[in-house]
Design a protein that fits this description.
By secondary structure, the protein is of the alpha+beta class. The protein has one domain. The protein has 5 helices and 7 strands; from the N terminus they run H-H-H-E-E-H-E-E-E-E-H-E. Strands 1-2-3-4-5-6-7 form a 7-stranded antiparallel beta sheet.
């Protein structure tokens, strides 16, 4: 994985699409997370969020972030979006990583899920398999902006 984009570049991308440092929609984040929790229970693989999940979703809820190199691809910080059977896929990856995982977003064209673990790392669950997006929010946003991801092998427990 190449080094993350400069913070100013990532922030400019976010701001271009409506984000600002004061953007916070905790109520919408809690609503979206509750939808996801109910759906995971319906699927038979309950997912449990924690405070960092709500914080992340709340910082970006309601916004859309087209990827500059492929604007048809859009990152949506919307944990309720997914596909049938995704809760089992998330639970399987969580077991492989020996960490809790919860979806915090969705990529529109590839139908990939952006996942946060309980260490603050971000992963991308794609139909071709799981990938690593970054060790923290800044690196993950840079990866989403650039369309970067890394092989996940080094992160398995």
């Amino acid at each position: 994985m190449r080094p993350p984009a400069p913070r100013a570049e990532v922030e400019a991308w976010l701001r271009t699409h409506g984000w600002h440092p004061e953007h916070a929609d905790r109520a919408e984040a809690e609503r979206l997370i509750a939808v996801r929790v109910r759906d995971s229970v319906r699927q038979g693989c309950p997912l449990e969020p924690w405070e960092a999940v709500t914080d992340f979703v709340g910082r970006y809820a309601g916004l859309r972030f087209p990827m500059p190199l492929a604007p048809e691809r859009v990152f949506l910080p919307h944990p309720a979006l997914g596909y049938e059977g995704d809760a089992e896929d998330i639970a399987g990856l969580a077991a492989d990583l020996d960490r809790r995982l919860f979806p915090v977003g969705y990529e529109t064209v590839e139908a990939g899920l952006v996942l946060l673990d309980d260490l603050g790392r971000f992963f991308y669950l794609h139909h071709t398999g799981p990938y690593f997006l970054g060790g923290d929010e800044a690196q993950a946003l840079s990866s989403l902006m650039r369309g970067d991801q890394d092989e996940i092998d080094a992160y398995y427990a």
